[in-house]
Amino acid sequence: MGKRACGGKRKLRRGLWSPEEDEKLMNHIVKYGHGCWSSVPKLAGLERCGKSCRLRWINYLRPDLKRGAFSQEEEDLIIHLHSMLGNKWSQIAAQLPGRTDNEVKNFWNSYIKKKLRQRGIDPATHKPLDEAAVAGGGGGDGSNRTAVFRDAELILSTIGGAAAHHLPAPHMPPPESYMYSRCSTECDDAADVVVGGCISDGSLSLSEYSQTPGFTGYVDADALHCGPASAVIPSVSSSSTLNSMAGLSPGAAAAATTTTTTIDEQSTITTNHDLPFLELGTMSAASAGNDHYAAALDELKWSDYMFDVCYSHQLPPYHHGIYGDSKDRAVHFDAHGLGNW
DNA sequence: AATTCAGTCAACCGCCCAGGT
DNA sequence: TACCTGGGCGGTTGACTGAAT
Q1: Sheet of A205-212: strands edge to edge?
Q2: Which nucleotide is nearest to A50 if distance is taken from CA to C1'?
Q3: In whole angstroms, how far apart are CA A26 and each of A54, A132, A241?
Q4: Beta bridge partners of A43
Q5: Cβ atoms within 10 A of the Cβ of A324, count?
Q6: Which nucleotide across the nucleic acid strands is nearest to A114, CA versus C1'?
Q7: All residues at 6 or more sequence positions from A1 whose CB lies less than 8 Å from its CB, including other chains
Q8: Which residues form the signal peptide (predicted)?
Q9: pLDDT digits (tens, 9 = 90+) for A100-145
Q10: What sign has the CA pseudo-torsion A212, A166, A206, A177?
């Protein structure tokens, strides 16, 4: 099985994308949508394979990307989700608006993994390292995640600071903002797991992970394979949702990301997925004085800049150079068809 | 100033899965 | 039912960059 890597007979370009290629791809998708990815390169006049175009779009050109530094809340959420899902980067990223699976994966591998190890936690199992070793060398697939993970405790004991108190210690009752819903199937491996201070008595899903007034992270119940009783919570970071939003204007898309979703018969939660740049700005405002957020703001890259400016001035994006970063790769895009967003 | 090293991140590769024929 | 194709995902690689020596 398995297909050949893209390329085939044609000699296709590989490696880093040039600004010109980005422009071609962006203009094409803005005008026509991506449709069938394999036809995109031809239609867009690119000597790339469809896969490469898709990846470039999803990981870099997509207008809803947040970029910039991960916030403490995002980091906490990633750790929690990883303890439940393992290396399901796409599912984890789906709960982090504006983040891509690649970004989350890189962040995990380059930063969180190391941080957990330094704290004596096996990043694969979320157990103490010595315990993980006894358990049989720690199996790197995360399949043995079900016994004990104390990320909340870890975070509380290590980061101090603003975000820590938003996570309950394992012995503390959860704040009201934590809402759990029972799921019917496929969550058995979560049995007896300590999650944010609650020990479930069986199937468990963390349906809302609300930590700060300015930040709400969501666990897509479907992403947790928690059965049909759970509702799907839209996430603007998922590519499927992005596709569905392709027909919306930015304003409409922003509006569309504010939804009310019924989780089960007892619980109703209101999601408030602001667009990424707005969210980051909100977090920053809510966390004034927190250097972490200040740093995050400082590291805003082109997408944040571009969309901030465009939305706030009711302008279509891409009138501004999209490469607002230090690489100084100014490119201007054709604004036609942006009503499609 | 030059070199080495480590960290980050964009991109590719190979596999799996779903849908169509 | 078997095969084919496209989309998607996770793992890995390699270029780039900044810090350390």
Answers
A1: A178-181, A205-212, A215-218
A2: C6
A3: 11, 46, 18
A4: none
A5: 18
A6: B7
A7: none
A8: none
A9: 888 888 898 888 888 888 888 888 888 887 766 665 443 333 333 4
A10: negative
| In chain A, residues 128 through 157 whose Cβ sits under 7 angstroms from any atom of nucleic acid strand C | 141
Between CA A257 and C1' B16 the distance (Å) reads: 31
Q: In 10 A of CB A261, how many CB atoms?
A: 18
Residue A110 is predicted with a pLDDT of: 86
pTM for the full predicted model: 0.56
Number of domains in chain A: 2
- How far, in Å, is the CA of A26 from the C1' of nucleotide B11? 18
Contact between residue A230 and residue A181 where contact means Cβ atoms under 8 Å apart? yes
A323 C-beta less than 7 Å away from strand C: no
Residues A195 and A248 in one domain: yes
Q: Which of the residues in chain A have pLDDT under 70?
A: 1-11, 131-341
C1' of nucleotide C9: residue with nearest CA: A90
**Looking at residue A131, what is its pLDDT?**
67
Place of tokens 């469809």: A50
Nucleotide nearest the Cα atom of A1 (by C1'):
B15
Q: Detail the protein residues whose CB sits closer than 7 A to any atom belonging to strand B.
A: A 1-7, 13-17, 48, 51-52, 55-56, 59-60, 102-103, 105-107, 109-111, 114
Tell me: do A181 and A292 sit in the same domain.
Answer: no
Q: What is the pLDDT of residue A128?
A: 80
Please give the radius of gyration of chain A, using alpha carbons only, rounded to the nearest integer.
Answer: 21
The range of the structural domain enclosing residue A197 comes to 72-277
Contact assessment for residue A229 and residue A266, using Cβ atoms and an 8 Å cutoff: no
Nucleotides of B under 7 A from a protein CB: 7-17
Same domain flag for A267 and A301: no
With CA of A106 and C1' of each nucleotide, the nearest comes out as B9
